[in-house]
Amino acid sequence: MMLRTITALVFAAAMLATGGAYAQQATTPAAPAPYPLDNIPDKMPWANAYGAPITLQRAQAAINAAVAEANKRGWPLVITVMDSGANLVAVVRMDGAQLASLAISEHKARAAVKFRRPTKVFEEGVQKSGFNYLLSLDDIVGSRGGIPLIDDNKIIGAIGCSGGTGSQDEVVCMAGAATINK
After folding, report:
1. Is residue 16 one of the residues assigned to a domain?
2. CATH no. for residue 91?
3. Residues 77-128: pLDDT tens digits?
4. Nearest Cα to Cα of residue 53 among 17, 33, 82
5. Do 94 and 123 form a contact (C-beta atoms < 8 A)?
6. Model pTM?
7. What are phi and psi of 106, to 5 degrees?
8. What confidence tens digit (pLDDT) does each residue in 66-77 have?
9. Phi-psi region of 82 (alpha: psi -120 to 50; beta: other; left: phi over 0)
10. 3-class secondary-structure state, position 152
11. Please, is 81 exposed, middle or buried when counting C-beta atoms within 10 Å of its C-beta (0-12, 13-18, 19+)?
12. Do 84 and 53 meet the contact criterion of CB atoms below 8 Å apart?
């Protein structure tokens, strides 16, 4: 018992001495780096107003263009169009597309319309800029493949694609969005 007590005291003394030596090390604080989020833009970014909801006819035209692009490249994807209120208008699951892509394409379209910007912005914010706080915001998806549909400078909906890599999803979405965004 006495040996254990002495061992414990020696160990505690060693820990205190080491901690004290660490605390006494001289440190020179570096000048704080400018924080990119402290920049205040003159204009509000991504400030397109919401417009009337996309019609089914226009949503189908966007999906048809996206499907044509995906077929041309041999990429089986899921393509979703949401209206300006983030409500589902149309969805297509191409033959061979993975089941998980149904929910993911909806999520991408919903994020693009709710936040009024392509989901690539979130991907770049997290991956390139280290803005991990983005992942704490509701309905964010940090993967490209969601693009707002803009007519007459108003957001009428968004298209989301999933099933390939982010860049594949984005290429197909851009083909669909090109029928609306002119």
Report:
1. no
2. 3.30.450.150
3. 999 999 999 999 999 999 999 999 999 999 999 999 999 999 999 999 998 8
4. 82
5. no
6. 0.78
7. -65, -45
8. 999 999 999 999
9. beta
10. coil
11. buried
12. yes
